Prior knowledge:
The chain is an alpha+beta fold.
Amino acid sequence: MGGFEGGDEGGFWGDDQISKWMDKHNTKKKSTHRTNSDIEKNGSVYSIKAHAKVNIFLKITGHKDGYHTLTSRFMRVEDLYDTITFVPCKCEIFTVEGCEGVPLESNTIYKAYKALLAYTDELDILNFFKEHKVVVTKQIPSQAGLGGGSSDAAAFMRLVKEVCNLIISTKELAKIGSTIGADLPFFIYNYPSANVSGFGEVVEPFEEEPLRLELYTPNLGCDTTVVYKTFKQHLFNDINPNTFQGWEKLDSKTLLQTIKDPTSLNDLYAAAIIAYPTLEREHNKGWFFSGSGSTFFTFHTSL
């Protein structure tokens, strides 16, 4: 008997019940596709939106080579995004503005730049950034489980591909991005919703109605490394794949309406509470937890 944990209903659901839910809730779908509509050009200035994401569910599936594997539903947040802009400027070195307090070597955009140079050996990239600087307009909070740094790096890579006419596939770009961070492939593929698995490198688009999301980020940052280490130390041995079997087949609205418990939906929530005890006081009933935190989210039925 397979299935997924029924949240407030308790117990497990079999494959036949999953099929019934899919038939009931997935009858109307919008086509899921990548889009470059968020790239804009104004004279010699280029810009792109770097959207935030939430994790509808996030389950740890194992640990290999020092990293956790997972299965998760990522959903793009349409109305929360940073903006990456390439502005004409004579630059002796690669220049990023708008990321104050982050050393250049630690900046995900700089890492993406170096990775693109190493993979393509394109002088066009090197020359372009002697004539342009990168300006980041931040809206996505840091250490919030929304993927801001990864989204910025992925958007940067997509924009470089466009402005430098790189002959490189999206799959190749995602492979390069995966060397920088686990969330980058999702942002590079630019799907509104996707099932993500493995180390984050397996990204499968999921066609569903977009959810109208509301976010709440407390004045508290959660260090992703700390949360994952806490999970491995305290919770890793409790992994049970049978409790989330079949979740990847169900639309996000059904999952959130059915399971309801943020701890059941996101394995990292319990770890985040252990690492940051004050976080639990920030949680309101009916809200869910994204990634390694610290953002909570809820949804409203689309009109």
